[in-house]
Amino acid sequence: MNASMETKATVTLPDDLLADILGRLPARSLAASQRVCKAWHELVENRRLLLRLRRLLPHSVRGLFINYQDYGNPHFFARPPLAVAADGARIKGKVDFIVREINGYSFSSWYEVADHCNGILLYRDTDQHVLYVLNPATRRRARLPPCSGEDWKRRAFLVFDPAVSPDYKVLLEPVDPREAACSRLMQWPPAAWKWHEFSSMTGRWKEKVFVLEGEAAGTVGELVLGLDSLRYSMVPRWRYAAYWKGELYVHCRGEFVARFSLLNDKYQVIKSPIDLTDCKNDVRSFLGRSKEGVYFAAIDDGQLQVWKLSESNNDDEMRWELKCHSNLKTHSWWLHERKYDAPWIMDIRYKEESLQQDVCWNSDDDDIIQVSDDEEESCYSYVRFLGFHPYKEVVFLCHEGTAVACHLNSSKVHYLGPIHLGGIYNRGDRESFVYTPCLDWRLRAYASASTCRF
């Protein structure tokens, strides 16, 4: 019997029997079985067979990688006992196992975290404009080949799901329309949006054209040169993304979200739940992944609002469902920092005794900030988003160097600790990435051995 006949015969098995057979496969083989045919893919998805695989992966937040405005390397902010790599080394923001050698001298350059996805980081050498993909838990890394002469101007996004494949992809957004020769009246985003994609399977970059489905968000003049021209110019860089169920959601200039399907090379524009014309000048917005999918948050005039993206069963239209609307009273955060010891600490304050245990963080164990009902509202223009908890409905926030975790359902706020560095580095954090470790991931060795070190 040839392969096609075998596949056809297997597909005709009763669903219960086929699910039992597939459920006995090793985790990687179970994930790979989804690519055999559409029937198998739907069976694995509908029977939630991959949950067995996902249970093998860590589902805990171990800290935050934070980039700073006035410091050449990110820092790692976590709760002791501190997360450690597989070889026992402590996890730090400054990745000391990436070393460049020039004229016989080895040294670390200036780096920043460009993105994080399911346990691996996209790291950027800001001196040499080089991208790395690395796993802090296993200390494995790969240096990506250059794509174009203006890589450093382009946003980069990492796509990786260990439940589906050991391979990862990196997507480079086109140069900002403000720097390109674009007409103010030009539709934005365009009907055919040209990106670049790197695949660890091939080890090469290729041009990837996404075709628009549905309406555009507006024009270049309205979205890029108009409403949004002065917002988020320095503190922080705000363009985040979320990878969810095989699709990449990107927060775009002009306050809209673009959803990219990596399987069929199509994309869709999703309107933001906020209207910039109705907001105050200090509005801040944030996109990320949380417990039930893709979430969008905004702080405007002291009000924190969080929405979850949901899809209507009737017309397949994407809608934002409000999950949280609460007042922020940041004065208590500042008082808490001065009254209590910080449950979380920066990597520059690590102590050796904190490495002796390995306990996952539970947000319910941290100190709750007590806020009185009559407390006056504080200055909100400096409240920043640090990220969403991917497995709980919790958002991490920061005000004047004090980090907290806010529970969306109860509006309770937990004090985490200070993230300011002190000294001359007084302009604070720029952006952060919530870190969830992946202990069993191994970088795929792609074409050029010189770009991948194990």
Automatic annotation (TrEMBL):
SUPFAM superfamilies: F-box domain. It comes from the Eukaryota. Pfam families: F-box-like. Residues 7-53 form the F-box domain. This is F-box domain-containing protein. It comes from Panicum virgatum (Blackwell switchgrass).
